[in-house]
Amino acid sequence: NDPGRTDIPAVLSGEWWRLSGGRDATIMVANASGNTVTADVFLAFAGKEHKLDPLVFTANQTRLLSVAEMLGTLNSSASEAPEGRITIIQRGPNPSLVAQGRVTDPVTGFSTTLEFPDPARQHASALHASGVPIGTPAEGSPFAGDGYFTPHVIASNLTGKPQSVSITLEYPKSSAWKSANGPGGPTAPLVRFTG
């Protein structure tokens, strides 16, 4: 309950993806202090940012937020905003809100984590990810029989100025390696840019 903690970011921001067909993003937000705090909440989708009603957290309160429900308050739906960003900004000088989320599909049981990294620590000219599964896993893979992997990159601009993003995929390609060859699909990965 130390209001002087410096490890809690002032801005919580996370991206959701593939919301439709019953999928939802649920965010758990907790007030880690003994004081009541108010936070402004923004949803960004389809190239626009929308401000929601402020949230008030009592001391040590935890709340669950549904992106589908929040979209409903904006007369929108998950099918209209399959990808987007939620930003929570606490009012006051001492940040005390922490958040974690997940995207879930009640039909298939699909679930993935929705992270809220500190935007102040994310400033970089290049972001790298390695070991991302693409395509159909080989027989010897621990993921054999799990289907076809289609990776997604969700990029979000937190500034008020236009930004450019270049995505580069490096992958092995040979007649014996089928990870880039989907069932009846192209021999090179497809890249889709949204927003």
Describe the structure.
The protein is mostly beta strands. It has one helix and nine strands. The strands form two sheets. Strands 1, 3, 4, 5 and 7 form a five-stranded antiparallel β-sheet that branches. The longest helix is centred in the middle third of the chain and has 7 residues, at 67-73. The radius of gyration is 19 Å and the shape is globular. The protein starts with 10 loop residues before the first strand and ends in an 81-residue tail after the last strand. The model is unreliable at 179-187 (pLDDT under 50).
- SS class: mainly beta
Shape estimate: globular
SSE string: EEEEEEHEEE
Proportion of residues in extended strands: 25-35%
Average pLDDT confidence is: 79
End-to-end Cα distance, whole Å, is 39 Å
Please tell me how large the radius of gyration is: 19 Å
Q: Give the % helix.
A: under 10%
